[in-house]
Design brief:
With 177 residues, the protein is an alpha+beta fold. It has helices at 13-24, 63-76, 118-127, 140-145; strands at 2-8, 28-33, 36-39, 50-59, 91-97, 102-103, 108-109, 153-157, 163-164, 167-168.
C-alpha cells in the first residue's frame, strides 16, 4: 500500500492533477482518491494558491523505485527546480509506503512533514482516516483532530473525472464517500 500527496500551484493545476493521476496509473493501482482542496501558500507566501489531494494505491515498486518514478514524472510534467517551498507545476510526495519507517539520506518515510499540515491531513483523512501512523501511533483522523494549524483548506473538486480501479468516480461506489 502506498499513499501519495499531490500539490500544484502553477499553470492549469487541475489538468496537471488529472495527468499526474493518469501517469501514476502506469505503476500504481489506484484504489482511492481524495477530493481536491485549494490552500493558500505557506512558508513562501508570495505565490499562487495550491491544489492538494491524496491518492491511495498499491504498487510492486520498492520505496526507492517509487521515489525515482515520482521524481521522473514530476520532471516530465514540467516541474522545474525551484526554491524550497516555492511554486511548482506538480509535487508528488510519498506520504506512506505500507507502515515502513525509512531514513537513509535519500528517502525519509513516512514523509517528514505529513503532520502539522491541514493541507496534507485533510485529503489524507478522506481516504484513510483509520490509518495508524507508524511514528506517532495516531490515526490520521486523530492527527487531523489534534491539529492547531489554522490553514484555510477549501474544497476545489469533490470528484476526479477519471477512472479509478475500473469505476468512474461518481458511480454508486464513489471512491471518496
Amino acid at each position: 500500500m502506498v499513499i501519495l500527496g499531490l500539490g500544484a500551484n502553477l499553470g492549469d493545476r487541475h489538468a496537471m492533477f488529472l495527468e499526474a493521476l493518469r501517469r501514476l496509473g502506469s505503476q500504481i493501482s489506484i484504489i482511492k482518491t481524495s477530493p481536491i482542496y485549494e490552500t493558500g501558500a505557506r512558508e513562501v507566501l508570495d505565490q499562487p494558491d495550491f491544489l492538494n489531494a491524496a491518492v491511495l494505491g498499491r504498487t510492486t515498486l520498492q520505496p526507492h523505485e517509487l521515489l525515482q518514478f515520482c521524481r521522473t514524472m514530476e520532471k516530465q510534467l514540467g516541474r522545474l527546480t525551484s526554491e524550497h517551498f516555492g511554486p511548482r507545476q506538480i509535487d508528488i510526495d510519498i506520504l506512506y509506503y505500507n507502515r515502513e519507517i525509512i531514513d537513509d539520506g535519500g528517502l525519509i518515510l513516512p514523509h517528514p512533514r505529513r503532520t502539522g499540515r491541514r493541507f496534507v491531513l485533510k485529503p489524507l483523512s478522506d481516504i484513510a482516516p483509520d490509518f495508524v501512523d507508524p511514528v506517532t501511533h495516531q490515526t490520521v483522523a486523530e492527527m487531523l483532530n489534534d491539529l492547531d494549524d489554522i490553514d484555510d483548506v477549501r474544497l476545489f473538486a469533490k470528484q476526479w473525472p477519471v477512472k479509478v480501479t475500473g469505476k468512474t468516480e461518481g458511480d454508486e461506489d464513489n471512491n471518496h464517500d
